[in-house]
Amino acid sequence: MDASKANEPLPSERSGHLLVRVGEQICAVPVAAVRRVVRALTVHPLPGARAELAGLAEFGGEPLPVLDLGRLIGAPIGPHPLFPVTVVVWSRTGEGREAIGLAADEALEVVDLAAASWLPAAGFLIGEALVGDQVVRVLDPDQLGAG
Amino acid sequence: MTEEGIEEELLLNQTHRRASSETEAEPRAAFGAFALLASASAAGVVLLAIGLAFGASAWPLAAFTLVAGAALALLAGRRGVFSRSAAGVAGVADLGSIPAEHAAASAALSELRAGDLVAAAEARPDLAPRVRAAIATAADGLATLAEQLRSVNGETATATDGVVRMTAELASSSSELSASVTEITAAMEELARTASGISERAITQVELATRVEARGAAGEDALVEAVAGVAEVEARIAAIAERTDALGARSKEIYRVLDLIAEIAQETHVLSLNAAIEAAAAGVEGRRIAVVAEEVRRLASRSRDSVASVRALLDEFSASIRGTVVATEEGAKETRRVLGSAERAAVAVADLRAVGGETSARAGKISGATREQDAASDEVVATLRDVLYVVERTSAALAGLDATQRRLERLVLGVELLAQGLRRDSSTSLVHLAQGWGERLAGPDSTAEAYQRALDELLVEAPYLDDAYLVDAKGYALFLGSRRRPADAPAAADGRAAEGPEHGDRDLSGRPWFRAVVARGRTVLTAPYVSVNGRTCFTVAVPAFQPTGELRSVLGVDVDVHNWTRIGAPS
Fold this sequence. Notes:
The complex is a heterodimer. Chain A is mostly beta strands. In chain A, about 10% of the residues lie in helices and about 50% in strands. Chain A contains 3 helices and 11 strands. In chain A, the strands form 2 sheets. In chain A, strands 8-1-2-11-10-9 form a 6-stranded mixed β-sheet. A 5-stranded mixed β-sheet of chain A has the order 3-6-7-5-4. The interface between A and B is medium-sized, with 15 and 16 residues.
């Protein structure tokens, strides 16, 4: 991935994003919404929960709902992850914000993405951007809590 | 001798018989001296004949006969006692000018010279007593000598016959022995050749066994070295396996270290990302931290890449180690198999070496034994050849002895005929017996059956006779008798069975004995001859005369030369 090119300051609005890999898909999470990247947390499944909800984990002494990002975006399963991670993001709600865990296969790097080049998308996806020749799907963390 | 030669071989003292046809007249004294000289000559001839029969040379007999004949001729010539005459003995009585006493003496002397000792000793009244006594003494002496001669001759013939049989058996045995010795010699020579072949093969076997033993020893040493080498290889393979196991263990430690490094790199990576996130949250102030965080992230990434490279190399190394372990285990297994085979081969080679040694020893013994057997066989063959030489010499000597015995048989037969040439008043005198048979058959005319019966009885009375036949004055056989073909003979002219070898030809006028009887007018004894049936025999022929003096018939009897010893013997 050509990170230097992605990091070039653009005249339009640019913001930092954390690239994570899930299966064969790469997603971008706005750095501003990222609270922490940690090694994959131990998840306790919740009976009757929807499929994207992997379960509850413990983070900072508090329960943390963890979403299966691969299931969430429908990414095909890739190679077995050596160091899976859990990306803890803030998701704004009507009253405030809540922490949500995203289970990913690997945290890659932090890049700047220009919003003007994004392709339109819907739901928790803000759009799709090109990082080098790789299509990156940009997530909207605020939509995760609502979903 | 054939019948044609009998004329010249007629015995019966032909010289005397020829002399008997001469008439002589001399004074009584001269006649007495001549009678004594003739008697002494006859006795000397008999004695020398006996000596000849027992192996003495023939020349003394011939010389004595010549000297005696010359002396008799000289005495006769000087005294004018004997003069030749064409008349026979019967004519002596017709000489009316000669005194009766001289005629009687001449007749007696003629009978004596003809060998008829019986007729010579007949009583003649005209003779002076001392002359009659002298003639009787001479005839008696000659008869005694002839009888003794026959007796000794018979013993000689018996002994000769025994020697002949023994010689024949010995010759047969010698022939069989010669064949056996020849066969045994051939077998021994074959045995010697076989032994020689076995010895040569045994020697070759000894050489081969010795080479096998030597090569077995070398092979055993090589196998011992090979076993030691394989054992060393096995030990080294075991050391390699041990070291390989150690390398495997080290590889696992390296993997754990790599895992630790990779984890640290990942932690560093995550830490750099969190730093970058915090820097972004800090805004402009956080830019310098963001740069540092990026550098840390790159270091962490390089560390992860290095760990991956090292892990890949270590994977290859581990695969090589696993291959080495597998190969080492296979090598150890193969080495153990080879070691087992080498140890078994060493045992087999040791056994082979021992067998080779034993074979060599046994082959050596066989070779020695066969060489000894070969030498012994050669000695036996040499001995057998000596034996064969002796046997062949014995056979040759027996062949010579056989010829000598045949000669002796002829001599014995000659002596017998010489003795039989003298008619003696004895049952052993064939001429005397034949004259008796002749007088019996010359009796008054009888029937044909009576003549034939008389002949048959004659054959029964004298079993040593083969044939008997009565012929007329012309030599035609009137009656024949034979003991050899009694049943199947053809009928004779008179209706009786004709028997004997001459039955097919009844005209016997050409036979020498018949011609001799006609010529001599008295009994004749032939020399041995081969008859028409192939047998060797001799014949006594006795004439019978008509009252007018003409020949009436002749009785002939044949005696096989092998049967003469039975003359006079109890039947």
